[in-house]
Amino acid sequence: MNIMSLSMQYSTMSTPIEEHDASIFSIPTSPTSSSRSTSPEWPFVAESLKLAMAVTNVCIVGAGYVGGPTAAILALKNPHIQVNVVDKDTARIAQWNSKHLPVYEPGLNEIVCIARDGYQDGCRSPNLKFSTMVESCINDADIVFIAVNTPTKVCGIGAGAATNLAAFERAAITIAQNLKPGAIVVEKSTVPCGTAQTVQEILSMYRPGESFEVLSNPEFLAEGTAVKDLLDPDRVLIGSSSTKEGQKAAKMLRSLYESFVPPSKILTVNTWSSELAKLVANAMLAQRISSINSISAICEQTGADIDEISEAIGRDTRLGPKFLKAGVGFGGSCFKKDILSLVYLARSLHLPEVADYWMAVLAINDFQVDRFTGRVVNKLHGALVGKKITVLGFAFKQDTNDTRESPAINVVEALLDERPAEIAIFDPGCTPSEIESAIKSQGSIERTSILSPNGPVKPYINAYEACQDSSAILILTPWPQFQYPPASVSEKIVHPIQANAPSQKRSQNTTCSADCALCAKLTPKQAETARECLDWSIVCETMRAPKWVFDGRNIVHKEAMLKLGFRVENMGRA
C-alpha cells in the first residue's frame, strides 16, 4: 500500500504527505553561499554540518514501534549516514525487509522503502538496513540508540509499578561489549530517572579505563501519527552531562536532527531532566483524558453533553482542545506504564501523596472501562447468554495495529464472564492473528479455549460478517471507517499519485516468495474492504433485535443512527 492510500484517509493530515511537503523525501543540501550571510540559523547549521561529518554510521538496537519509525526518518533525512536497525527477532527483521512492515503507521511504508531500497535513477542510494547482525552493526556505529521495550515488572520487588529493565540491560551489555572507542550511547527507550548512570556503570564494568558518553533522547511520537510527529516534532529533547565531553556528544546527536528540525525546537537539558520529562509528559496527557472521562460520568447523570463541555473548555487558550475527547479509556504501551513508573519513583522517594495522586489517574481509567461494560450488560437486561456481541476496533487507537493495553481487551474479558454465545472482533488495522496474539498474551485471561474453533471469541476480516446476527455493537476504537455520518470526502479521499512523485521513483527491490505467509493472510480485496467506510444501513438490516450500538468513542451521531433503526448509547450523554 502506498503513502497516498494510507495518509489521506484520515483527518490527521489534510493533504497527502508528498503534496504537503515534498522536501521530506529530498536529499538535504546546505544553504547557498548567497543565503548564508542572511540566514540567522546559518551559524548553527554550519556547526551541525561540521559535526555531522563525524557521524557516518548510526545503529538502533530494537526494531519495534519506536526503533523502526525513528530509524526510517533519520535515514530519510540524513542520506549521507548509514542507519542500521538491529534485533534478535529474526521474524520481525524479516518483516521490516519485506512488503509487510510489522508496524502499521500512515506513510511509514513509503518512507521505509525509499530509505531502504533507494531510487531507481540512482540519485539516492539505500542507507537504511534491518539486520540481526547485532554485534557488528554496533561496532560500526558512531552513535548507538537503545530502543527496546521497557514494560512494567510483573514479579519481584516493585512488581506492578517498577519498570522492567531486563531487555534494556541486555542491550546495554551487548553495546558495552561491542562499542567502538569514542562512540556515543543514546537512551531512546522510556526509562526511570537515573538509568543513564546505570548504563555508565555497565560500560565501566565491561570497558574499564575507557570513557563513553551516555545521552537521553526520549521519543515523543504518538502511534497513528508517528511519521508526522517525527518529521515535525514539537520538540527534540537531548539530555547530557554538563562536562565538555557530554556537551560535545549532545551536539553530535543534535546534528542528526538539525537536517530537518529547526534548531529552536531542539532542547538540551541535563540527563535526569530528560529522563523524567518523558514520564511526566505521558502522565500529564493521561491525566487530561482521565479528567474529561470523570466528567463524562457526571454528564450521563445530569443531561449535560460531554462533547459540548470539551469544546467549551478547549476554547480556553490556557487549556487547548487536545486530549479532551471522552471515551472508554486510554490504552497503549506508554501511559499506564509510565504513570506506574512515576508512582514507583514517588514511593521510593517517600512521597505517598504524590504517588496516590497519579494512581487516581489510573483508577479513573479503570472506572471508565467498568462503567462502559456495566452499561452494556444492563441495557441487555443482564442476559448475554446466547447472544452475539460485536466489537468494532481492537487497537488501542486508530491508525495503528498496536493492541498493547487496549481497553478492548479489558472489555472483552469482562463480557466473557457473562457467557455470550460469541464475541466477534473486527479492526481494520489488525489482522486476526494479531488480535488472537493480544488476547492470548493477556495474563488475566486464563481461558485457553476461548479462541478455539468452538470458542466464543472470533476475530473477523470483514466488518459486515462480524456484525451479522449481532445483538449489540461496541465501538472501541475511533477508526474513521466506523464514523456516522461518514467522514467528509476531503477526509477520506485517496488522491491519485503523480507520475513524478517520489514514490514512483523508488526502487522496487522488495518482493515476496510465492508461498509468503504474510501475503496469504489477506487477499487484496479483503485488505481493500477493511479500509472502506462502514455502511451502517446494511449493518442494521443484518443485526438482531434490540440492535444496540454502544459508542465508546462518540463517533456516531445518535439521532442519525436512531433513524436507521439502532438504539444508541454514547459516552457522556444521558
UniProtKB/TrEMBL annotation:
Its EC number is 1.1.1.22. GO terms for molecular function: NAD binding; UDP-glucose 6-dehydrogenase activity. SUPFAM superfamilies: 6-phosphogluconate dehydrogenase C-terminal domain-like, NAD(P)-binding Rossmann-fold domains, UDP-glucose/GDP-mannose dehydrogenase C-terminal domain. InterPro entries: 6-PGluconate_DH-like_C_sf, NAD(P)-bd_dom_sf, UDP-Glc/GDP-Man, UDP-Glc/GDP-Man_DH_C, UDP-Glc/GDP-Man_DH_C_sf, UDP-Glc/GDP-Man_DH_dimer, UDP-Glc/GDP-Man_DH_N, UDPglc_DH_bac. One of its GO terms (biological process) is polysaccharide biosynthetic process. Keywords: NAD, Oxidoreductase. NAD(+) binds at D87, R92, T150, T190, E223, K337, R404. Pathway: Nucleotide-sugar biosynthesis; UDP-alpha-D-glucuronate biosynthesis; UDP-alpha-D-glucuronate from UDP-alpha-D-glucose: step 1/1. The active site is at C334 (nucleophile). Substrate binds at F220, L221, A222, E223, K278, F323, L324, K325, A326, G327, G331, K397. It catalyses: UDP-alpha-D-glucose + 2 NAD(+) + H2O = UDP-alpha-D-glucuronate + 2 NADH + 3 H(+). GO terms for cellular component: nucleus. Residues 390-499 form the UDP-glucose/GDP-mannose dehydrogenase C-terminal domain. Pfam families: UDPG_MGDP_dh, UDPG_MGDP_dh_C, UDPG_MGDP_dh_N. NCBIfam families: NDP-sugDHase. Belongs to the UDP-glucose/GDP-mannose dehydrogenase family. PANTHER family: UDP-GLUCOSE 6-DEHYDROGENASE, UDP-GLUCOSE DEHYDROGENASE/UDP-MANNAC DEHYDROGENASE. This is UDP-glucose 6-dehydrogenase. The lineage of its organism: Eukaryota, Fungi, Dikarya, Ascomycota, Pezizomycotina.
